[in-house]
Amino acid sequence: MAWISLFVAGILEVIWAFSMKLSHGFTKPIPTVITLITMIASFALLAFSMRSLPLGTAYTIWTGIGAIGAFLVGILVLGEQLSAMRVAAAVLIVSGLVLMKLSAN
């Protein structure tokens, strides 16, 4: 259950990061509210998963899902630049996540 909670927390992190971008510095009410709600839910699920997962593993996986998810949303939804260097960085992040998951008990 901890891994599922952690995965959902990571997805919510992507949602709040995207909503924060859409809020234009918290000047738009609906994206601001979405940001705050998903942020709180993401932190709550992260905290729940940390009851049984090691801190380093849980936090690394959570931030990694957020980083890769935000990277993909930026490219696919916001039209951000896709370059070989950015793809290489994303591959390294995913590699780190896989290694962290494999090393967890």
From TrEMBL:
Family: Belongs to the drug/metabolite transporter (DMT) superfamily. Small multidrug resistance (SMR) (TC 2.A.7.1) family. Gdx/SugE subfamily.
PANTHER family: GUANIDINIUM EXPORTER, SMR FAMILY PROTON-DEPENDENT DRUG EFFLUX TRANSPORTER SUGE
InterPro entries: EmrE-like (IPR037185), Small_drug/metabolite_transptr (IPR000390), Small_multidrug_res (IPR045324)
Bilayer topology annotation: Multi-pass membrane protein
Keyword field: Cell membrane, Membrane, Transmembrane, Transmembrane helix, Transport
Transmembrane segment boundaries: 33-50, 57-78, 84-104
SUPFAM superfamilies linked: Multidrug resistance efflux transporter EmrE (SSF103481)
Pfam families with a match to the protein in the record: Multi_Drug_Res (PF00893)
Name assigned to this protein: Guanidinium exporter
Record carries keyword Transmembrane helix: yes
Subcellular location, record wording: Cell membrane
Principal cellular location given in the protein's record: membrane
Species, as recorded: Neopusillimonas maritima
